[in-house]
Design goal:
Length: 374
Amino acid sequence: MAVWAGLILLAVPWVSGTAGQAAAAEPATVSVENPRAAVGGPLKAAGAGWRPGSTVQVEVCGGSALRGSADCDTVRAAVALAAADGTFRVALIAGTPPSPCPCVLRASAQPTGERAQVPVDLSGAAVAPPSPVSPAVRVDVVSAALSGGPGPAELFGAPAHRTLTVTLRNPGDRPLGRAPLIIAWGPGSTADIPVAVPVTAELPAGAQRTYRVPVRLPAAAFGRYSVGGRYASADFGVTTDIYPWGLLAVAACAVLLSVYTAAVTVRRLAERRRGRRSPGVPALDLPPFVEKDALLASLTAGSAGDGPGGRVGTGALIRALTGEPALVDFRALPALLAAVRPAGVTAMARPRQVPAGNPQTVRDNKTSEGQESS
């Protein structure tokens, strides 16, 4: 029993999805509650089979709406939103259409492009027979494509240039007059920015004609763009992807350079803080007074030492006084100490700390003591 219940629960979503797909596959329709109305009177319309969420515009049109919006009273049009089941209801005022009757109630959806219409008897509007040529003419779109790849400038954000090539064919037995060619572009799936197009010519019966229209997309374009249009009763549309990889690479390099500069700055600030926190050099235990001439003579030309001229560097002197005797020339140091010792004072420099296990330091120390005792 539990197995059958599980199978039923699994089948319910499948059946619902199948029903939703079947509903979506039904053609869009529109109906009117009062097919006989007067100009200025109300009209109530209902629709079914429309894509859920699409915006449907309902309007009264003359001339059987053969020329599209040019035959419709768009000023008094009403707009409705298709529900989840594909239905809608709307009320509008019947106005006088630009073209004489026969009149229809026309519904069109955006951005899907679905259309439907139903005849209405509109009293008070002019009546004229429709054109005998236009209803029989149908146009097929043989091909529609965009050409022109990304150039070096486009990779760095320059405007993109493409060429729309569309081939149209008249499959009927009557010629088609100079119908207007309308082309537009836009980001994503919406093409609503018009493009300048060439003047069209008459399309004979059974003939086809190709039009090439340059399309210029904006600078720094990014992502997918749509280019579409309409010629007579035929609609067409194509898409293209634009990605300025060069501009993205430059931006990435700028970000990396900024991160590197910030890291170097932070590291230098940290080093400065550590330098301020480090303990300073301890104070030197020097006598208050020394003989100037003797000190200068000892620092420049001492008689002892194994360096050039027996000289003792000031850096070695400071290291010796701060407790680093292993770095001092001990054979030249006694002459310096004798020069800086005040008269009548027998004190020597600070006791030296000889590192254990340093034979060279021990030898230097013994040599220094021997010279001093002598």
